[in-house]
Specification:
Elements lengths: L1 E7 L8 E2 L5 E2 L3 E2 L14 E3 H9 L13 E4 L11 E4 L2 E4 L12 H6 L4 H4 L2
Parallel strand pairs: 5-6
Antiparallel strand pairs: 1-2, 1-6, 3-4, 7-8
């Protein structure tokens, strides 16, 4: 597995922007990210292969557009069993959910009638 991008946003419901460095706080998430907190899904991941699939639908999308914190390459994320541990550098993440609810039908869903996060994000 390769990390393509690490992304954060200051406000929920906005595109996450790539950052050069991120501080991960245990049992909280990425410092400065709007989705960090004391809950079961502190950091979300999406494979670049899934983003490429969305490009095949005619969308101009890139890392962070699906509000994922970490964009990966070379790992089938939705095939991972719950509670799988993923080591990225010094950080160990645990899969607590497959799929990420598309709240209020995101802009991508509104454009093409479907979204990849509910089935391919973790």
């Amino acid at each position: 597995m390769k990390v393509i991008s690490v992304n954060i946003s200051k406000a929920k419901g906005t595109k996450k922007e790539p950052v050069e460095f991120a501080e991960v706080i245990e049992n909280f998430g990425i410092k400065g990210d709007s989705h960090a907190g004391n809950w079961h899904r502190q950091i979300s991941l999406l494979a670049v292969e899934s983003i490429e699939k969305a490009r095949g639908w005619g969308l101009d999308v890139s890392s962070g557009d699906f509000a994922e914190n970490i964009t990966t390459e070379g790992i089938n994320l939705p095939a991972l069993p719950l509670w799988t541990k993923i080591k990225i550098g010094d950080v160990v993440l645990e899969v607590t959910q497959i799929g990420k609810t598309c709240h209020d039908k995101c802009e991508i869903f509104k454009k093409v009638g479907k979204c990849i996060m509910p089935t391919e994000g973790i």
